[in-house]
């Protein structure tokens, strides 16, 4: 009987929450990295060099990073519905406002504002999923969130390159139409969040009483196990815990990979002699393969008690991919290396986020998740700037791609030495 309630409850919660969570992150990523496609024509129109373009990329994170931890603490205090709804509406408006940029200064300024508007969305949604799903399901539900990363390339690439074809309509450049038409759906989705999202299982009047009671009690028991094994850390102690700092170092590489690929892969593919329209479709191919790998890998990873060794191996595979991508950067053979990267990182991303709840809970987990995400955004600053600077000074993307390979190798070593006492949590968790 209990197993029937468990399956029915998780299925109902997943269908209620995960599509909305996925769409939020998908649209945020599209609005965040669509300048990679806009740059195919925008950089020439505005006179942006690769280095100035990379500064505009980094400006987003200078706005985003200082607001990320406060954002997650506010979400835990006032609830996800109001806070995530506010984030979506404000980032959508600013994303559409990218159409008004007219030069270097305005380009950098609007990107900075976009970072402030979107700050806290990703760590906030990770925290939100931990409010709703027991540990035995987290790799799969995290996959539903981070699935948006390869999906943004698979969907966003063809859409963005198609919108560039609107060049000249109503006197606007194609890249301006790209920003306008991709920002407005985020605003609409923000109002959907305000109406549909439920803050905690205790407030879920759409769940039958016995299902709600099972979920609330299961999550409560898991918190007790975690706090008994590790003690309930304060926000400050959670932020300076050595395990959290090792996860920060690891996730720096994740951010370096995601943003370097998002902002520069279209420009690299363009050097192979592709048309602007074809670039979007070529970029989508390895992303689709990454999606399929992520779905299969997340199902398997929920059955692993210790995920650190597998995570470390996946990051070594990604390192190999970036070395190959750097070596073949000037030819389409690099697409095979890109596919290897998408496959390994596709499995690694949702698996990574199962680690913090193994030794954190409450406000400490809220703050730590945000801090870890901050380091991904540091990677989003350093990686693109390094690639842009190296491309400007050497005329090649190869050195920048080797830098990213070094980051993933460092991350494989960092995750390998993280120590968690997950046995108690695993024993208490329901088996899917």
Short description:
The chain contains 18 helices and no strands. It has helices at residues 2-33, 35-46, 50-78, 80-97, 104-118, 121-132, 138-146, 148-163, 174-196, 209-230, 235-240, 242-270, 276-301, 308-327, 334-352, 362-394, 398-416, 423-428.
Written account of the structure:
- The chain has 18 helices and no strands.
- Helix 3 (50-78) runs antiparallel to helix 4 (80-97), helix 6 (121-132) runs antiparallel to helix 16 (362-394) and helix 12 (242-270) runs antiparallel to helix 17 (398-416).
- The relative contact order is 0.16.
- It has helices at residues 2-33, 35-46, 50-78, 80-97, 104-118, 121-132, 138-146, 148-163, 174-196, 209-230, 235-240, 242-270, 276-301, 308-327, 334-352, 362-394, 398-416, 423-428.
- It is globular and about 60 Å long.
- The protein has one domain (2-202, 216-428): Up-down Bundle (Growth Hormone, Chain: A), CATH 1.20.1250.20.
- By secondary structure, the chain is mainly α.
- The longest helix is centred in the C-terminal third of the chain and has 33 residues, at 362-394.
- The two termini are 15 Å apart.
């Amino acid at each position: 009987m209990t197993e029937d309630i468990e399956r029915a409850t998780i299925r109902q919660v997943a269908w209620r929450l995960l599509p909305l969570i996925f769409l939020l992150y998908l649209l945020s990523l599209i609005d965040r990295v669509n300048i990679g496609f806009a740059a195919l024509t925008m950089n020439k129109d505005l006179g942006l060099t690769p280095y100035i373009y990379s500064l505009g990329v980094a400006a987003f994170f200078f706005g985003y990073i200082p607001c990320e931890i406060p954002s997650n603490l506010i979400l835990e205090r006032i609830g996800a519905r109001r806070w995530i709804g506010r984030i979506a509406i404000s980032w959508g408006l600013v994303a559409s406002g990218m159409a008004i940029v007219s030069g270097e200064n305005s380009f950098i300024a609007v990107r900075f504002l976009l970072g402030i508007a979107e700050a806290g969305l990703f760590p906030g949604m990770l925290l939100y999923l931990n409010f709703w799903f027991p540990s035995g399901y987290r790799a799969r539900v995290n996959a539903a969130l981070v699935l948006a990363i390869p999906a943004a390339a698979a969907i966003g690439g063809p859409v963005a390159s198609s919108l560039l074809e609107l060049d000249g309509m109503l006197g606007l450049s194609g890249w301006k139409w790209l920003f306008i038409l991709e920002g407005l759906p985020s605003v609409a989705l923000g109002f959907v969040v305000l109406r549909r999202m439920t803050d905690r299982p205790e407030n879920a009047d759409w769940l039958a009483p016995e299902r709600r009671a099972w979920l609330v009690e299961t999550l409560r028991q898991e918190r007790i196990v975690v706090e008994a094994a590790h003690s309930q850390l304060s926000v400050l102690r959670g932020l300076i815990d050595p395990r959290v700092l090792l996860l920060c170092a690891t996730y720096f590489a994740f951010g370096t990979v995601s943003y370097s690929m998002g902002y520069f892969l279209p420009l690299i593919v363009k050097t192979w002699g592709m048309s602007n329209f074809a670039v979007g479709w070529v970029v989508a191919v390895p992303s689709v393969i990454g999606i399929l790998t992520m779905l299969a890998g997340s199902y398997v990873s929920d059955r692993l008690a210790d995920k650190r060794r597998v995570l470390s191996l996946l990051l070594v595979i990604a390192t190999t991919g970036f070395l190959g991508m750097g070596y073949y950067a000037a030819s389409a053979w690099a697409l095979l290396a890109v596919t290897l990267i998408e496959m390994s990182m596709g499995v690694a991303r949702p698996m990574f986020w199962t680690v913090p709840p193994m030794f954190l809970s409450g406000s400490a987990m809220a703050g730590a998740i945000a801090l870890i995400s901050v380091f991904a955004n540091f990677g989003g600053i350093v990686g693109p700037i390094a690639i842009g600077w190296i491309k400007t000074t050497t005329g090649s993307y190869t050195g920048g791609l080797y830098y990213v390979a070094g980051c993933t190798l460092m991350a494989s070593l960092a995750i390998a030495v993280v120590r968690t006492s997950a046995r108690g949590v695993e024993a208490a968790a329901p088996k899917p």
